[in-house]
Amino acid sequence: MTTALVCIDFINEIVDSTGKLASKGYYAFTQKHGTLENLARRQAEVRGAGGQVIHVHLGFAANYTDHPASSLLLGGARAGKILLLGTPSTAIHTSVAPQGGDIIMVKKRISAFYGTSLELTLRSLGTSELIIAGVSTDLAVQSAARDAHDRDFVVKIASDACAAATDQDHDVALQNLAKFTKVI
Asked: Is the N or C terminus of the chain more exposed, i.e. has fewer CB atoms within 10 Å?
């Protein structure tokens, strides 16, 4: 069974103290729970075992032509001038940055599968098991986990390498995820 660790939205805008979205509670959560350190350990474990690390993160074109203006969640990115590709906003945080052999993908919506080549890449690699880590547990992680489950992957959630705006959001999401994934 080939394993891939899918790391979702660990970008500066969300998990760095300077990020505009980090102020919604994500930075505080990652600091309180050691999320980035936990993810770095998991990345090293997966790489050491011969698995694949894949980074999938939000990012929009400079003119926002690929931006979902009607989205209650992402619609404000344009007005806030955030999540622009090629800027520090969408750079993956240095503590969990890609290493040689890692794969990087950009997504335009919540799920790591929607509009990306994630499924094709996983199938090409012969991956049957996914470990998902990401921000936020109740949004991007849950969306990707549902999509992966419905695509017949074995799905595990690295609970200590996920973050949400609040502990309650994180805990409720993990309870829901435990209904169709293995929470580790």
From this structure: N
CATH number at residue 176: 3.40.50.850
> Angle, nearest 10°, between helix axes 142-150 and 167-177?
10
Q: What is the pLDDT of residue 152?
A: 97
pTM of the model: 0.95
Domain count, the chain: 1
Domain around 133 = 2-57+93-183
Is 74 part of a structural domain of the chain?
A: no
Cis amide prior to 89 (ω within 30 degrees):
no
- What dihedral do alpha carbons 45, 51, 57, 63 form, nearest 10°? 140
Task: Name the H helices within the chain.
Answer: 12-15, 26-33, 35-48, 77-80, 118-125, 142-150, 167-177
87 in a structural domain: no
Q: How confident is the model at residue 1 (pLDDT cuts 50, 70, 90)?
A: low
